[in-house]
């Protein structure tokens, strides 16, 4: 047998956890479920290490596993995830206890209203730092499809958040809230 | 001052600068796109900065043990 999880790999997996969690939390809207998803991803990765081509992007491989797990194992609970009645958004509002700041609440709520394929594409390209090509590979679809989803996601978010009529949506939105209040 | 979103969106639709032609997809102007992107990354960064739950460290520790200490590291 080959020597299993070498120390560097263990460290690499551990180092990938924050970005996997951020993706899983943003995708599923639930911290607990996200952590289960990340744990399953790590276990799946370790049992499939022989399939990982050394020298290629470990993160992209892990994201692919996580994304596939999300869509297969978690499809049963899809109704919750798709959020027809705002339950995802409702759960996200619990997150300030996890250290989130209130000024992201509007954004989270809007993000929750996106179809999951658009949310996923936007998270991969706009937040996780993957290229369109990498995101397409992770999602198993064409590059043009990813571009289209990302565009639609941004467009939808902009209209949900009324981006046009505010100067600054960034962390300063607290100031904005104060001024409006 | 009311915001004339219609104009802005119309302008956005024309701003189709990506390589792929996505005729049916509306495009955002770059300012709005940047604001959305900034907000997304800010939210995401906050999640990234959360401490890694102990369960993951423990999980990998357990796996190390289970796989034996072939490498000779403790």
UniProtKB/TrEMBL annotation, chain A:
Positions of the RNA polymerase sigma factor 70 region 4 type domain: 105-154
Gene Ontology BP term (one): DNA-templated transcription initiation
SUPFAM superfamilies per the UniProt record, alphabetical: Sigma2 domain of RNA polymerase sigma factors, Sigma3 and sigma4 domains of RNA polymerase sigma factors
Superkingdom, taxonomy of origin: Bacteria
InterPro entries (alphabetical): RNA_pol_sigma-70-like (IPR039425), RNA_pol_sigma-70_dom (IPR014284), RNA_pol_sigma70_ECF_CS (IPR000838), RNA_pol_sigma70_r2 (IPR007627), RNA_pol_sigma70_r4_t2 (IPR013249), RNA_pol_sigma_r2 (IPR013325), RNA_pol_sigma_r3/r4-like (IPR013324), WH-like_DNA-bd_sf (IPR036388)
Residues of the RNA polymerase sigma-70 region domain: 18-79
Keyword Electron transport: no
GO function terms (MF aspect): DNA binding; sigma factor activity
Keyword terms, alphabetized: DNA-binding, Sigma factor, Transcription, Transcription regulation
Similarity comment text for this entry: Belongs to the sigma-70 factor family. ECF subfamily.
Record-linked PANTHER family: RNA POLYMERASE ECF-TYPE SIGMA FACTO, RNA POLYMERASE SIGMA FACTOR RFAY-RELATED
Name of the featured protein: RNA polymerase sigma factor
Species annotation: Microvirga aerilata
């Amino acid at each position: 047998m080959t020597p299993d999880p070498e120390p560097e790999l263990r460290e690499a997996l551990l180092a990938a956890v924050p970005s996997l969690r951020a993706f899983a939390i943003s995708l599923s809207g639930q911290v607990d479920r996200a952590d289960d998803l990340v744990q399953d991803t790590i276990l799946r990765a370790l049992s499939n290490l022989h399939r990982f081509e050394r020298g290629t992007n470990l993160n992209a491989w892990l994201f692919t596993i996580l994304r596939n797990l999300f869509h297969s194992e978690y499809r049963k609970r899809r109704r919750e995830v798709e959020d027809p009645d705002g339950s995802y958004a409702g759960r996200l509002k619990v997150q300030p206890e996890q250290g989130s700041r209130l000024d992201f609440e509007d954004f989270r709520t809007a993000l929750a209203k996106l179809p999951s394929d658009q949310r996923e594409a936007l998270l991969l390209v706009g937040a996780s730092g993957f290229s369109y090509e990498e995101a397409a590979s992770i999602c198993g679809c064409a590059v043009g499809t990813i571009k289209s989803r990302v565009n639609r996601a941004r467009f939808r978010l902009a209209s949900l958040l009324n981006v046009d009529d505010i100067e600054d949506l960034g962390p300063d939105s607290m100031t904005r809230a104060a001024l409006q209040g | 001052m009311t915001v004339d979103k219609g104009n802005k969106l119309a302008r956005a639709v024309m701003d189709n600068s990506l390589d792929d032609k996505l005729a049916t997809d509306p495009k955002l102007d770059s300012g709005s796109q940047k604001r959305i992107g900034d907000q997304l990354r800010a939210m995401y960064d906050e999640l990234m900065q959360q401490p890694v739950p102990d369960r993951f460290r423990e999980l990998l520790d357990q796996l190390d043990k289970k796989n034996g200490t072939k490498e000779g590291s403790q």
